[in-house]
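Batch manifest, entry 17 of 40.
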Amino acid sequence: MKPVTAIIADDEENLRIGISVLLEQLWPELKILGHAQNGIEAVSLIEIEKPDIAFLDIKMPGMSGVAVAKKVSHTCKVVFITAYDQFAVQAFESEAVDYILKPVTQKRLETTISRLKKQLDEQDSLPDFDLKMEKVLQVLENRDALEYLRLIKVKTGSELRFVPVSQVLYFKAEDKYTIVQTPFNEFLIKTPIKNLENELDPKHFWRVHRSAIVNIERIQIIKRSFTYQMIIGFDQTDHTIAVSRSYEHLFKQM
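Output type: structure tokens
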């Protein structure tokens, strides 16, 4: 009998490892074929390995889990990993697609495994399953689009301003504040980088360092320093941002 196989895609290494360990304990017959750190890697891994199941983080740099699912849902079952409870209310009622809320717990994963085994045993008819999946992805896309930040509220003197995120070159943590850098202005806000990462569209904003998020639409050049560190340069300014080695893989696909 052919073993059931899966891949895990999430930009958080600890989470990927944690899910792998839990799956090994709760479903020892399941074979993990590989891990992906972003959506682009996930699509490539799925196309090469052809797993039965894909565990996909909804928000990943490069390509979201929803975008990945649209490409591969006809080839494998999908389980979304999400930190956002609102995603799970309407979209998963059909149980065509399952989800796991972060932080991942053993109890929730046990429920997911039970559902997956049932789906694999029943072998949903392809047209019916594709229709269910299409409805789920449509709901996720609509909710996703509404959630992303469009404007950043900043204070300049006694005035409040709203800066379109499309104008932002990068966000950078600085002491107790976060720098919002546009081509001609620098603003300070109190929202931490970690919170911003969850509120920005991952198709356009990538975490490139534990203290920095960049707008990939505003990147003009990517180069190496004399110490061989990857450096990002932006249009209309001489500002640069260093890329942590753990995030360099994002740009190898560009």
